[in-house]
Design a protein that fits this description.
The chain contains 12 helices and 13 strands. It is of the alpha/beta class. It has a single domain, classed as Glycoside hydrolase, family 3, N-terminal domain (TIM Barrel), CATH 3.20.20. The chain has an 8-stranded parallel barrel, surrounded by 5 helices. A 3-stranded mixed β-sheet has the order 8-10-11, with no helix packed on it. Helix 1 packs antiparallel against helix 12, helix 6 crosses helix 7 and helix 11 packs across helix 12. The protein is globular, with a radius of gyration of 20 Å.
């Protein structure tokens, strides 16, 4: 029975042509669990060259583009095209945050028209909203991205919230309205072949402070209703990824993205029955790293907390090669902990299953996917 289930699973996910020369490498592709940032605005920048080398060697699984990387449309497209055409074992994530309003990477700096914030979009007519989401998704696609870190499904509970409420990043304080508009956002992106990520679980809308800068404890203000949009969208199979914010609470045992927290294992996996990819917010943010905990330390801790995929925009020394250093650190951690190895294997399988949606898997890579999946399923059945 187990064999039949395993075979059906593999065929269902990886039904592609396979080459006669199958790869024998059974080493877990744990670099797939990392999306990293870089410094530079063109293909010849040392930081971008590092990214390409790390992608092609399997040390990382994707790259995030930030405002510091966007000089003009031509240079940006050149870089995203280079990433898309990399000699990589698996399709890389090419990611950005494009929400509209204050969080808009593809706006005036690239001579593109500003799009309204989530709060402003919610006030528009159905037709106007449709046009906004279609414009956003088309723009993201045309610049070469395949993953947009949105929509924001935080509820607008605290208007004085420095990173959500004050920036107009929430559609509404009503969970049904947030769900409806998030669904439009997601469907517009899916129509262009772009993955999305619901954020910031378990809910950043009631908080006061900014997790980019400081640790944020929401024990006294967080409400159960804040997970409702996630429950709705997961049930409708509209969650490609769920991004977990660096939110601390005694209700889930500490900071949601760090070891000891049950936010992922209990709230998201058990209660909401979510089986897809869980990604963290940036591990360089002030909420999780300080003089005692580096970005690398925080990243390792996030895997113990149950994350599948991490964003690491930079290290304390911006000249360091993020991918190479993080790959080495994770490799060392995996050698010391069998439970962590099992978790990362499972994470890689979730990530590869999701990456299968990006574009058709090349024939020469399909056997790698199948063998990796078989190995993982054999371990589960032992």
């Amino acid at each position: 029975m187990k064999a039949r289930l395993c075979s059906s699973f593999i065929l269902g996910i990886f039904f592609v042509a396979t080459p006669a020369h199958a790869a024998n490498d059974t080493k877990p592709d744990f670099g797939q669990t990392m999306i990293v940032g870089f410094f530079g605005t063109e293909k010849t920048a040392p930081g971008f060259i590092d990214v390409m080398q790390n992608l092609e060697s399997g040390r990382i699984g994707g790259v995030i583009f930030l405002p510091r990387n966007m000089a003009n449309p031509t240079k940006l497209r050149d870089m995203t095209l280079a990433v898309k055409n990399c000699k990589c074992k698996f399709p890389p994530f090419i990611a950005l945050d494009e929400e509209g309003g204050r969080i808009q990477r593809l706006g005036p700096k690239l001579k593109e028209k500003n799009l309204p914030s989530a709060r402003e979009t919610a006030l528009l007519s159905d037709e106007q909203r449709h046009d906004i989401f279609e414009t956003m998704a088309t723009r993201v696609h045309n610049y070469g991205f395949n993953l947009n870190f949105g929509p924001v499904v935080d509820l607008d509970i605290n208007p004085k919230n420095k990173i959500i409420g004050e920036l107009g990043r929430s559609y509404s304080k009503d969970h049904e309205e947030v769900t409806a508009l998030a669904k439009e956002f997601i469907e517009a992106h899916r129509g262009r072949g772009i993955l999305t990520a619901l954020k910031h679980f378990p809910g950043h809308g009631s908080a006061q402070d900014d997790t980019h800068k400081v640790a944020v404890d929401v024990t006294a203000v967080w409400k159960e209703i804040e997970i409702k949009p996630y429950a709705n969208l997961i049930q409708e199979e509209l969650a490609d990824m769920v991004m977990v914010g660096h939110l601390a609470s005694r209700k889930w045992g500490g900071t949601a993205t760090l070891k000891g927290s049950t936010a992922i294992s209990d709230l998201l996996r058990r209660r909401l029955k979510y089986n897809g990819v869980v990604i963290t917010d940036d591990m360089f943010m002030g909420a999780v790293r300080d003089d005692k905990r580096t970005a690398v330390d925080a990243t390792i801790s996030s895997f113990y907390a149950g994350a599948d995929l991490v964003i690491l925009s930079r290290l304390e020394n911006q000249d360091e090669d993020v991918g190479r250093k993080m790959y080495s650190a994770l490799s060392n951690a995996l050698e010391k902990n069998d439970a962590l190895q099992q978790h990362v294997r499972r994470s890689v399988e979730r990530i590869l299953q999701l990456k299968h949606k990006i574009e058709p898997i090349k024939a020469e890579n399909s056997q790698n996917l199948i063998e990796s999946t078989k190995s993982f399923l054999r371990k589960l059945s032992e």
